Amino acid sequence: MLQRGQYNGPAPVSFEQYVDVQHRQSVRGLHIDKDLISRTLSHMILDETTLYALGAAVNSGRSMLLYGNSGNGKSTAAATIGRMLPGQVLIPHAFEYNGHIVKVFDPRVHAEVPDDSPPERRADELSKTALSDSSERRRDQRWVKAFRPVVMAGGSLSLQDLELRYSDVSKFYIAPLQVKANGGVLVIDDFGRQLIEPKELLNRWILPLEQGIDHLTLHTGDTIVIPFDLLLVFSTNLPPRQLGDEAFFRRIRHKIEMPDPTHENFVRIFHQVCESKEISCQNGALDYLLEHHYRERGRAFRCCHPRDIIELIESIASYRGEPPALSPELIDLACGFYFVDL
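Below the sequence we write its predicted structure tokens.
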């Protein structure tokens, strides 16, 4: 048995059972209403158009592209989408396919739901209860009850990360990112800055995006046809024209721009950050910042600027041994450290 494979853990489930369970907990057909979108994204200041676009994309259960200038909340919105998805999922520790074991559960991306059953209940106590009483049955330990997964992949993503990883020593497989993300969200952050061309990455997923299945190859040459059941989110600060052509973007159903904040929204974000950090925000201080470091320099607003500038002010004040304050002197120092002429 050890020569066949050195997998050590809960018994793998059958591949057929894995597929059946995955279809039952599909992301397709989930309903996300406007109130849930607003509550989940309440920590971000977004206009109504962007909120509607995000809501429609999540409800579709298909792919989306978030694009716009750096610092406008694309990665934050993408990561937050996972918390919008209702329900919980069952993740197998591993599944077995024609004698091959594929390990699926990964504690780094699968957040296990705490078990509500009392810890003092032991097997001997459960054995006294009639098996017909389903409420007293023990949970199948081959599965982990988890929140819908959110898998983040950045600039280091390669095509090898999307294939089964086999070890000649242990003789079992590790599931690729998209399998770990089944039933949840897979975020490709910094899309276009990977080691592979955007066209190569999308070509790898043309059939999975359209058919809802993926093909994975074993080291023996056999192919596993596995569910591709996830919300695929691409996030980029590159202009879309640099990523692909019309045929390329036709494969991605929803294209959502995360625009620069308006003057009104920038002020709201600034006040929100000040309130969270318990720093008094006088109108004169904010007017000074806007006049001398934005209007005079023709500088565009970014959603991340208020947080970053105020955190710099906190660091400078801490170094000087004084409480943070939005004085012109500290604002000038923080902006001098933060902004760079590109």
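The chain has two domains: 13-257, 263-338.
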